[in-house]
Structures are given as structure tokens and as C-alpha cells.
Amino acid sequence: MRILVGITGGIAAYKSPQLVRLLRKAGHEVQCVATRHALQFVTPLTLETVSGRRLYADLFADGNDHTTEHISLKDWGEIMVVAPATANIIGKLAGGIADDALSALLLAFTGKPLYLAPAMNTQMWENPAVQRNLARLEADGVHIIPPASGSLACGTEGIGRMPEPEEIMEHLELKVENPTTQTNSQFPTTHSELPKVLVTAGPTYEKIDAVRFIGNYSSGKMGFALAEALAKKGFAVELVAGPTACRTTHPAIHRTDVESAREMYAAATALFPSCQAAILAAAVADYRPAQTADHKLKKQGDSGMTLELVQNPDILATLGQMKQKGQRLIGFALETDHEADNALAKLERKRLDYIILNSLRDEGSGFGVDTNRVTIFGSDGSRHTSPLLSKAEVAELIVARCLA
Ligand code: PMT
User: Fold this and answer.
1) Of residues 32, 154, 246, 402, which has the active-site annotation?
2) Minimum-distance ligand 1 atom for the alpha carbon of 216
3) Active site residue 32
4) What's this model's pTM, rounded to 2 decimal places?
5) pLDDT(235) > 90
6) How many CA atoms, within 13 angstroms, populate the side-chain half-sphere of residue 93?
């Protein structure tokens, strides 16, 4: 494949030659296009050596056909990736500005896959202007490779690091859909929509043998109502659902189906770093059988049977540990006694911003039904109790109070 690699002026540009090297090693032809600022971080000689082609960096350089070089390059390239993509190039492309070689090429490069790997300081990444530009570009069909979290060049920790070249390669070649995920529409499955919220819903099933499991009565209705309410409010939703008959309708919901707590844990922890918030409404089994049989267990005479259980990972507590500045974490508490005390203990222990208490002692609340009555406790000491409402209305209330 013929790949255009754009490089802009961020410290992560030091990784760009490695990306080019890997692409070439995988048998692709690569043309580098750099901004003036990128060349403060990486030299033309390096880029020309690894790509084996003359660097394109100046619209008016000697030897260029000044008016059509970017047009012939956009015809040449089959896909294009900008790594790193600074806030500046993201803003220029979102605004349709073409004032140098790379931005002119980007504007001309239409109708073919275009990937951006943003890299910047966390505050810049979280700036509403950058998020607006990214949302605009995604709506235009540009694929955004989510930045990673970790220590940044500015000495702080947070989201904004350019993924490693190997990871970027995976994004570029991610043509095969994960069989356990379904998308409701043309909505992309491999890139983040912003702002994005993770929701867990439904029960988990913990396998005992080929035909039996430990489960619970969760129908998924509360979590799915939250996903719909979030999507209606303009969020992209990553919904991780246990076994449920519920269906989604909004195209901004991307659903990943799982069965066990450990599968839900793997999906939720992988998705959380690219989300601004997470609301965990799933009823996750705290324990699973220590052993599972791949055949149907047979009755053993008249004697009883003892199942040994081991603890499952606590997804909410893990997300509490992973939580970065600016991310919001909202949990549920399903209680039968000492409701407020138990909920408040979970709020603190799991490092939550809000906890939504529902009690099985309230008629019409909890599992299976279409209604719920909740109390929303905030880590700021706030507390709000709803009347009995439909789960759709409760979901709207939660979104309004916790994500405003
Ligand atoms: O699905 P429905 O039929 O509509 O019912 C909705 C509901 C009653 C399931 C929902 O409103 C609800 O209360 N969900 C949380 C149920 C629960 O498991 O509560 P908990 O108090 O045991 O867990 C506390 C929190 O930790 C929850 O956010 C839960 O998702 C999370 N958790 C629990 C255990 C675990 N191993 N990992 C987790 O993430």
C-alpha cells in the first residue's frame, strides 16, 4: 500500500521514523510530509533515509511543482496518517485551513482513509476547542487514534501521549471487526467519538459447567436506558453489556457483549482510558466457581455438592484506581439494608464522583422492572432523591446531575 505519513511539531515526532520504518518493513511504500515545526524535532535526513523518498515539507521548495505537488501526492497515497497530530494541525484541518505543505495535502486528501494520532499535553487535549475540532473531524469521517495515558514530556501524568508506532500500525490495519462487538450503524468501532462515556449494563454469568451458571436478576434495562439518555444528550457511548435481551436504538451507541465478570472487566478497563466518564450499572457477580467443567456435571448419588467460589475483580474499584484528572466515575449501589451508609462507603472506597443508590426495599425499584427510585450521592456531599420514575427518566436525571 502507498501510505502518506504526516509529521507535526510535537515531541512525539521522535517516534515517527520508527513508524515509517515499521510500515516499510511491512512492505508498504511511505511518503513523509512534515511541517516546519516537526523539523525542530526530527531531521529531514532521518525521514528521507527511513522512507527512501524525498521529504515533502515546503510548498515552495526548489524542485517542487509549487501548484500541484500536494495534488499529485494525494493521488499517490492510498491512506494517510498524521502522527503526531498537534492541536494546531487538528484545528487547521477542522477549520479548512491550508497554509503549508501538510495542511494543503490534508485538505486535498478526501475520499480515502485518513487517520490522526493526536499527541499533546493533557490540558490541551481536554480543551473544549480541541475536543470540538476532533468531533467535527470524526463527523467528517476522519479516524482519530486515541492518545494514551502516562507521563508526558511536560513532566505531568495524564492523557495525551501518542500511542507507540506498533499500536498505530494496528489501528491502520484494523480491518477485521472484533466478533463480539456490534455497531448499530456506520459509527466507527475503532476510533473514539468525543465526548465518550462508558456504561456497563446487565448481569454477568459465571460458568459452572457446560449448561449451568451463577447469575442474577438484572435485565439490563437501567444500563441501556442510561446509554440511550447519554446518546440523546450528544455523547458517544461505549456500552459493555452482560447477557440481556435489551436492544439499543441510537446510532451513537457502540455495544460490546460479554458474559462473565472477567470479560466485562477486560472490556471496561480497555475502554475507560478513552472515555470522559463511566457509569457502571451492571450487576457484576462478586464470585465465580473456582473450576468450570466443559461437560455437564452429573448427579453424584444422593450426596450434596459443594461449589468452591473465588473472587472476581472489582471493575468499579479498578476504574477508580485508573481514573485520571478530568474523568468522572459513577457507580451504582443495590442495597437491601443500611442503604445510605453502604452506598457512601462504596463512594469513598472506590474513589467515585457519584453513587446511585437503589434499594430493593423500594417497591418498583431495582431488578427487572421498568421503574426505579434512586438517591444520587456526590463526593461533594450532595444528595438528591428522586420519586419513582421510569428508568428512562431516572437515566436522564443521572445524566443531568452527574455529567452536567
Ligand atoms: O438491569 P436492571 O434489571 O434494570 O436492574 C438495574 C440494577 C438494579 C442492576 C441497577 O440499577 C444497579 O443497581 N446496578 C448495580 C448492581 C450491583 O451490583 O450493585 P453492587 O452494590 O453490588 O455494586 C456496586 C457497584 O460496583 C456497581 O456499580 C457495580 O456495577 C460495581 N461492581 C460490583 C462488583 C464488581 N465485581 N465489579 C463492579 O464493577
Assistant:
1) 154
2) 9
3) no
4) 0.60
5) no
6) 35
